[in-house]
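Page 47, continued from p. 46.
Same chain as before, 142 aa.
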Amino acid sequence: MGWLNKLFRHHPQKHLTNSNSGKTFEEKYQDLGAFQYDAAGFTITYEDFRKHLRWDEITQINVYKVDKLTVDEISMDIVYGDVYFSLNEELPGWYQFVLKTKEIFPTIPKDWDTAIIQPPFATNFRTIYERNPDDAPESSKT
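Result:
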């Protein structure tokens, strides 16, 4: 039996997500997770990905749902310049990040995260923030 344990000992660990964290919804909701915030922006650190981004670098935020066959997964693309990265609701810290974006960018609809749910299994793509040249995030205003 020792050889069997040896064989499976190096089984890759599952990535920590909101679904497998073992936390209650309230704990997940309050968790900063993969995010650290400062006055100018945020740093996201998850697995092999690490990125610091200033709020004023963000040019667009797009949200949509991904059909996972039996459930939908809400996703967000953070666009800065000509590049972007994607987040989804499984990322630890998601809920606080959504709240933070609504605080920093007052033009983001306050109900986008509940409105996007319906109808089920539809992509419901929408741009919730697009920077105008005259706009500045709340954090960069004096």
